[in-house]
Amino acid sequence: MCPLARRRDRGIAAVLGTVLALGSLLSLSTGPVAADPGKLAAVRNQVMDLQAKAEAATERYNQAQGRLSDVESTIAVLRSKARRQQTELNTVRGAVDNLARATYIGGGMDSSLQILLADDPSQFLSQAAAVDQVAKAQTASIRRTQTARLRLAQTQAEMAAKETIAQGVRNEMAGSKREADQQLRAASAVLAGLQVEERRRLAAIAAKAKKASMAAAKKAKKQISNRPIPGVNPRAAKAVRYALSKVGNRYIAAHAGPTTFDCSGLTMAAWRQAGVSLPHYSYSQYSKSRKISLSQAKPGDLVFYFGGSVHHVGMYIGGGKMVHAANPGDGVEISAVLGPWYRTYFTGIGRVL
Q1: What is the pLDDT of residues 150-185, one digit of tens each?
Q2: What is the domain-level CATH number for residue 239?
Q3: What region holds the NlpC/P60 domain (predicted)?
Q4: What is the residue range of 51's domain?
């Protein structure tokens, strides 16, 4: 595992602990208090809203992760460049040192002055040209040293500036992680405020929804099997098959497979199976896709939510449904694109170019 990935996994550890706590709250045994369906619906919506806010923070984390990767790649290139320039500087500086040492050993008097003081005019004429060449060589060596020093200093300054940017991005990531953690803890607190029977009822609703999602995935897989489907891009079909194979898997912030995903991580991994590279950031996926209407949607198209921020994305599978890494509580599941909760936040459909 690369250092970047290790930092990412350490960064989301606290969030994952809260996510697991949500599941444990829903799994408590039954109690004597009857559950109010209206209250449960309101609580579920409240929890989903909080999880959506956590996901927004996660997507900002993902976006920053991509920027950090780019900056660190640039720093690595600059570091290699600085090493080469340091070697070049050492070489030309060594040549200047050798000239200085030769001058010192020669008695400390400039060679041109020695020739000017020579008694034999023929000696002056024969050596003057050579002295001129030596002087030019000395000047050139000094200039090369100055140029090498300047180039190295410029590279080091650029590297320091990039390091400052990288640290700023790391700080952003830490802030996004804290925000995601806070929102998930708030969701946990909402669930903790329920009566035991209410939590049991919510768990039953979640289990029923998961069972329905698995059945829908099984049906969709049959419909979009390995056979070519009229009107559906073969690459899109391959991406959909991959995403459907992950239904039931867990949602974990900043993950992109092979067994755990966040929303943009699932769509990125699915399209990667089809040979298409997408960024691990829902807004960037939105920016890179061609916008179409829901009535034009085909399997493999991306479904976006939450307006201008676009911090949730799923994959259309046909029949008004999508497969997506929904949230920490539900994981990868199949949902209606315009379901009761999702309809409010629907942004649009994007076709992968």
Answers
A1: 999 999 999 999 999 999 999 999 999 999 999 999
A2: 3.90.1720.10
A3: 233-353
A4: 38-191
